[in-house]
């Protein structure tokens, strides 16, 4: 079984694959204060709780945008699972031609998402990832990673609003019933969620114009299912796109694809 790990600024999302099928998955809070022993014990216990013996893990792959955690997870792989961790970088075979000025500046999660989406759809794409930041990746019909855009995520925007205003309450991020809120809570929800959907649609529209083609729009990330229904441009939500991309890159690296 393959253990695929995606370390984001807010969450560590990880899962186990068997024959290209995601068998189980978890979402943890990213915590740079945890040691390799603590993460290793947590992973092993969660696997056992799902009926999966840790000794069934035969490979591990990691995408991380939190550099201090990469060596910690390398130790987890070696000490708890007795395998070397494959760390995603632009040097791997992604199936894409990277047109980024400096590919090593490209977040590994964005690279993994683009590789997974292009391998599945084989068409021009815009991938929107709703994480701590909302990121956009543009991929051409012929598999060129063209670049993208990065905006503050929905959670960051909400936190900034709550922390910088004296009277506005902290609210749950749920879909508003209307854009004209009848109270403060619904007004905030409308502004945040519908406003973020408008941001997405505007960026997507301009990207399509620059690409000169009607690219398919795929959404992923923890808040994708919340924003997508309010968007006019998002066509499909794939919540586990990053994990799917990690599994794909592991197979490519081993020469199995």
Helicity level: 25-40%
Q: Tell me how many strands there are.
A: 11
- Structural class given helices, strands, pairing? alpha/beta
CATH superfamily caption of the largest domain: ATPase, nucleotide binding domain
Helix count, DSSP H or I runs of 4 or more residues: 7
Rg (CA only): 19 Å
Main sheet: strands, sense, barrel: 6 strands, mixed
Q: In the CATH scheme, what's the topology name of the largest domain?
A: Nucleotidyltransferase, domain 5
**Coarse morphology:** globular
Low-confidence stretches: none
Alpha carbon gap, first and last residue: 16 Å
Q: How large a portion of the residues is in β-strands, by DSSP E?
A: 15-25%
Biggest sheet: strand arrangement: 6-9-8-7-10-11
Mean pLDDT, to the nearest integer, reads: 94
Task: Tell me what the CATH architecture of the largest domain is.
Answer: 2-Layer Sandwich
Order of helices and strands: EEEHEHEEHEEEHHEHEH
What is the total number of structural domains? 2
Supply the CATH class of the largest domain: Alpha Beta
